Amino acid sequence: MSVLFAFAAGLLSFFSPCIFPLLPAYVANLTGSSVKDNRMYVTSKVVMQRSVGFITGFSIVFVLMGASASMIGQLLTDNRAIIEKISGLLIILFGMQMIGFLNIRLLMSEKRLDVSGGNLENKWRPFLMGIAFGAGWTPCVGLALSSILLLAGASQTMYQGMFMLLIYSLGLGIPFLMISIAVTYSISIVKKINAFLPLLNKINGWILLSLGLLLFTGQFQKISAWLAAFTPFSF
Q: What is the pTM of this model?
């Protein structure tokens, strides 16, 4: 259950209005390329190499966040039931914000780190940009990411929390890599998918709302235990 929610949250975070429409700008900044005649003039090899560096950067930040959340959860293990209910309520709040039932301006605030300038040929630049992105994510990613961090805080071990955030990073990073390569041939794919972003954002909100309800009612652990019986490890 945790893996499914984490991957879905990462995948839908990528298709959020704060990330997906800006993908050509991300790729252009990472590679130093420009857009002309509806395509980006840069080789797929360069895009792949620099996108992997960018994804690695924010993945490390997210996994460390997962470790921190899990460690705090372990320190408060005697109050795990209370933590799960508080986490469930917060995730429900985040889900309602994404669906549009609420409009809390504080939840849509953001912090920025200026990483412009510098040598574009620096091989560490994409990695450092990934770290900057992970440390100062945009509001759309923050709600989903915060929910997964709350779930990591309620996990049994620190490694479970770290693994959960790794899965979230894969959900965010895999489509980033695939579509980054696609825009080198044509950026029209971004324009076509943009029309579905509001719907995908609401789907993400409903997923978070469901996760919060399951966590608050204690059904999350029961369903996870039931599903565990069908995994290869159970045999």
A: 0.78
